[in-house]
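Sequence in, structure out. Go.
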Amino acid sequence: MTIAAYRLVALDCPDPPVLAEFYAGVLGGEVKQYDDDWYDLYVPGGHRISFQRVPDHRPPNWPRADENSQQLHLDFTVQDIEAAEPRLLALGATPLDLDDKGGTRGWRVYADPAGHPFCLCWD
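Output:
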């Protein structure tokens, strides 16, 4: 028997509506505003990502772990990395590590507009 059921992932950020729209552009779905400081993205398949305003937000220093370390990151699967990457960059993503070892590594790392690292992965 499980103890709990998954509800959501919440990302701290300086501007929740901007970050919610960024991820809506990446994943699709519907953005809903709870209040000025909290927005939810309901993505296809029933999952939810939330965005919480933190006025003094500092993005993690990826990939460092000695100070202001990455607390978590999101992984997204794509069918065609070469088609997905330009669309992602047009939405405002920043490349962090694009060296996929000639396609053998199976992921590339980016930051969202608030500086959170995330990966595009493929099989």
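Check: The chain has a mean pLDDT of 90. Helices lie at 16-27, 81-91.
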